[in-house]
Amino acid sequence: MKLVISQLKDGENPLNFSSQNDSWLKEMGTDLAQEGYQLKGGFQAALILHKHEPDYYLQGNLNFGVERECSRCAESFTLPITGPFNLALVHLSSDKKQKATEVLSTESEELDVIYFDGHEIDLKPIIHEQFVLSIPYNSFCKESCRGICQHCGTNLNHGECVCVNNSKLTPFSVLKNLTL
């Protein structure tokens, strides 16, 4: 989805997108599925683009559900995500871009600043990046997940394990019998 900057009004520009109504967001959901993300339910993006020439400020909130595997018990579950973000968008003309190439590369790594040139702001790569950044590295099916037994692999959320866990054998177990 590309926004033509000349068609934006000064100040706040509210934008709401849904995978049910907007084909570009539905297409992005398909692209994300090819990358290994399984979306569950709809995908919504509520954005407010503040226009203050030559700079822009984008506030957004992504709402979606994604199929994840619990980091403790390895069960699949749907993780609901609400991912707020704030970005600065800086409009560059072609002569400014050539002069500031070195400065831009170091600044963009340190700040949440996106530089664009031309007469359009492409929202698709911005939304894609924020989608990936909003997914936690470790996901848990529930906060009280007990995980799996280290010896027999039983999911401890479904019941106690039946393995004999009397003696914990470790490489250091032989040190118990050592006399000095």
Briefly, what is this?
With 180 residues, the protein is α+β, with helices and mostly antiparallel strands.
Describe this protein's structure:
With 180 residues, this protein is α+β, with helices and mostly antiparallel strands. The chain folds into two domains: 2-142, no CATH class; 146-180, no CATH class. It is 22% helix and 37% strand. It is built from four helices and seven strands, in the order E-E-H-E-E-E-H-H-E-E-H. The protein has helices at 23-34, 94-99, 101-110, 123-134; strands spanning 2-4, 11-18, 38-52, 55-69, 76-92, 113-117, 120-122. The strands form two sheets. The chain has a five-stranded mixed sheet. A two-stranded antiparallel ribbon has the order 1-7. The N and C termini lie far apart (74 Å).
Q: What radius of gyration results from the CA coordinates?
A: 24 Å
Number of individual domains: 2
Main β-sheet, in a few words?
5 strands, mixed
Determine the mean pLDDT.
81
The topology string of helices and strands comes to EEHEEEHHEEH
* Total DSSP helices: 4
User: What fraction of residues sit in β-strands?
Assistant: 35-45%
Number of strands: 7
Q: Class by helix and strand content?
A: alpha+beta
Helix content: 10-25%
Spatial strand sequence of the major β-sheet: 2-3-4-5-6
What shape does the CA trace take?
Answer: elongated
Which stretches are poorly predicted, pLDDT < 50 over at least 5 residues?
none
Terminal Cα span:
74 Å
